[in-house]
Each structure stands twice: as structure tokens, then as C-alpha cells.
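hi! just following up on the protien thing from before. the input was this:
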Amino acid sequence: AEPFIAARQLPAQAPIFAVPESSSDFEPGDRAEARARTGVHGDPAILWIGRLDANKDPLTAIEAFRLASERLPGAELWCVHGSDALLPALERRLASDPALASHVHLLGRVPHMQVEQLCRACDLLLATSHREGSGYALIEALACGLPSVVSDIAPFRALVGDLADSRFAAPGDASAFA
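and the predicted 3d structure came back as:
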């Protein structure tokens, strides 16, 4: 809205509201029931959803998880992914560290309604994107009441706002995500 205010096409005091490109009909549910349905386990169980590409940055997610798991030995990372461009790199990274690989679950594509169950089953959403238009996975996770650790990018800031249980990290900074 800033260009419209600067051009005096809107009054300077006009209330401005950001409206996400999408909404979600997902909703919170019973975590134990969702874990039984999905097989998700972990203390904490962390969910990552995205394409395996440089923008979504699954390699930073894996490294952040590795760093965090040093302090959280019961942690498990559950990865739902669409396109597989970086799958070979991800598989090489996991093959180089069998201890890490035993706590990372590459689920691949799942039916959309299973995403809701995964959001209910997990304790935290990890989103490591460098840029987003809005962030559908984050919208759906928030609809399920899932706290998040997300990239410090404008669309994620707009969606998460000041939710007490969520945190921001610089894109690409595995230490900050951890």
C-alpha cells in the first residue's frame, strides 16, 4: 500500500490489511490420534514441507535439524516433498551421516488430507524458503495450531506476526534455524 499512500491515492491514516492468497480449511486436532494415523513420532517431531529445490532449501533444513538434534536426541524430522530436483543431493547428505539419516524421514508426495494429519501429529513446522509468494504450507500448519520456525521473509512475517511459539531465522542460516 505504500506506493498508493505516497501517491496520495489512499489517505495516510487508512487502515491497511494484508490478505493472504489462500486460506485453509485445516483445523487443530488430537495429536495422539494423528500420530497413530500417520506413524509420526519424535520428541519433538518436526515437519518440513516443500519442493526439493534451492529456494525451499531442504539442505539447510537438514543441517539445522542435525545441529538441533545434538540438544534434542529424541527429535525426528518428517519431510513432505513435491518436486525432487535436490533429492540426489539430499540422499548423499543423509548417506554420509547414518545417525542423522535414522532420524530423517523422506515421505515424498502425500495426499493433501494427510498433510493435515501430519500438521496435527508434529510439534513444529520448519520452513527454510528463501522467498515465497505467501506460503501455503505455513498457512495450513498455522491453521492446525502448529508453532513454526521459518525464514525471516516478508510473507512469513505477515502470516506468523508475533505468535509467541514461532521464531524466525535468516534464509540459509542453519545455525539460526537450529
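The first helix runs from residue 2 to 6.
The longest strand covers residues 45-50.
cheers
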